Amino acid sequence: MARVSLDATRQQALSVSLATGAYGLSFGALSVAAGLDVWQTCALSLLVFSGGSQFAFVGVIGAGGHPFSAVATSTFLGLRNGFYGVGLAPVMRPMRGWRRAAAAQVTIDESTAVALAQPAEDPDARRTGFWWTGIGVFLGWNAITLVGALLGSRIGDPADWGLDAAAAAAFLALVWPRLAHRRAQAVAAASCVLALALTPITPAGVPVLAAAAVAIVAGWGHPRAEEVPE
C-alpha cells in the first residue's frame, strides 16, 4: 500500500514539475526583452528560484522602474516561501547540513502544495512529494529558462506570441484556489483596485508593493487560515 502511495505521489510531482517548468520559457523571453542578458536571466532562475518574484523583478525593470523597486517588489513576493517553511518544518525534520540548504532552495508554492496534499499520517509520502516536486521544478524551470532566454532575442516582442500573458496566468492559477472565502475575495479586490489606481501615477513596482501592504494589513490579527471547503 505504501508503495502505491509513493508511486502516485511521484506521478503527481512529475506532472506539476512539467507544467510549472513550461513557464520558464515565458520568463526567459521576457527577461531578455526587459534588458537582461542570457547569463543574468539564468542566474535569476538559479539563485532566486521563485517564479512570482522573478516575473515581478523583470516586469518592473522592463517598465523602466528603479532597480530598488524591482528588488523590493521581488522580495515582498518571495517572503511567502519563508512561511511555507513553517508549515513544512514538522514534515522535514530532522534535517541538517546540505540537505537543509537544498530544502530551503526548493521550498516553493508547488513543492509545498504537493507535500501538504498527501495524507498527514503518511510523512514518507509528504517528504517524497516535497523533494520530487522541488527538484523536478528546479531542473525544468532552469533548463527551460535558458531556452526562453536564447529564443528571446530572436522572436521579437514577447507580446506577439502571448508570452507576456503567461505571467499573469501563472499568478492567477496560484491565487484562484485561495479565493474561496469572502474575506480573501475582499482583500484581493481591494488590492487590485489600489494597484490599478496607482499604476498611472506611481513608478513601476510601487503598485505591487502597495497591494501587498493591503494584504498584510488586512491579514494582521488573522493568522489562522480559513478552512478550505471540501
Automatic annotation (TrEMBL):
Membrane association type: Multi-pass membrane protein
Pfam families recorded: AzlC
Biological processes annotated in GO: L-valine transmembrane transport
Subcellular location: Cell membrane
UniProt keyword annotations, A-Z: Cell membrane, Membrane, Transmembrane, Transmembrane helix, Transport
Origin: domain of life: Bacteria
GO CC annotation terms, alphabetical: plasma membrane
Transmembrane segments: 12-36, 130-155, 161-180, 192-220
Family: Belongs to the AzlC family.
Name of the featured protein: Predicted branched-chain amino acid permease (Azaleucine resistance)
Organism: Demequina mangrovi
